[in-house]
Amino acid sequence: MDEFQFIQSVTPKFYRQPNVMKGIGDDAAIIRNQHEDTILTVDTMVDMIHFSLKTTKPYHIGYRALAANISDIAAMGGKPTSFLVSIVIPDDWQDQQLNEIYQGMKDLAKNFQMDLIGGDTVSGKQLTLTITVIGSVPQGRARYRSQAKQGDIVFVTGTLGDSACGLHILLHGNENEHDNYEYFIKRHQMPMPRVDFIQACQGITRMALNDISDGIANEANEIALASNQLIELDYNKIPCQSDLYHFSEADRSKWILSGGEDFELIGTIPANEWDILRKVAKETNTKISQIGVVKNNPEKNGSVWIYQHDRYAKLNKSGYTHLSR
Length: 325
Ligand code: ADP
Ligand code: MG
What we know:
alpha+beta, four-stranded mixed β-sheet, 31% helix, binds adenosine-5'-diphosphate
């Protein structure tokens, strides 16, 4: 396939979103929005750094790269609508593998009625995939990390540590021979961003939000810093699958606090809206858990502290704790 044929092979036959005025086929794409704020995000994945063909099939490379971007849109309170793909293709990559990368993206995009509206194709040494996702949110309703306030409840969706556990199983095999290993592998290969849940949250007056791509220790710190508040977490309340108890306490704790790539959401909301959030969670079939509180403490604002194993310790971005004096 030459470049022209390749672009033709990835061009969709129709567009799902009414705001696409021009998709693939001209010098640039055009979308038209009237009453919404536009959300834009871009991420780049490089072969051997962000993934390895040993643990990731081309299909999952495409799927996960798009999922990570969609998750960023959800974490702004928005819904994804379209995306552009820039790809650097090494000589030794087969047409079939490239098609699989696009198939992974297309299958996930279909879930959210998203359109592929453009991109760029070049050859180079290392497979590199850069995805730009465009989303929208009602005007003025984006959710920022800086919106946490004293008295807020800190919550998280889903369970944490699944993706890191899945990667561990892919790399080392199913050492503990537990039955649920396919669940963890799937959570690693095909994470589902929390778009539906966040769309249903529009009635919540205020919400600080961040998606869990690096690990909750990192993302909680980002909210604490942006909001200049103290976040206190209770380790025992952070939800994980019971099968994680087949693994060592050290692995489990590492995966839960800094495993990342679960693409769940961590957020804070006013305490008096917790019941509304629980209703939304039920309606959208989303597990949510209260895992902490937001406090204002001039000496500790901008940091995260955690109750873990009867200790109260500072939790830094990478997931290490420092004992309090
Ligand atoms: P130009 O020279 O104007 O950049 P290109 O030949 O790069 O045009 O692209 C032609 C069309 O194909 C454009 O609409 C572009 O967005 C789209 N396109 C190019 N590469 C890709 C790709 N890898 N994935 C999706 N769309 C692509
Ligand atoms: Mg181009």
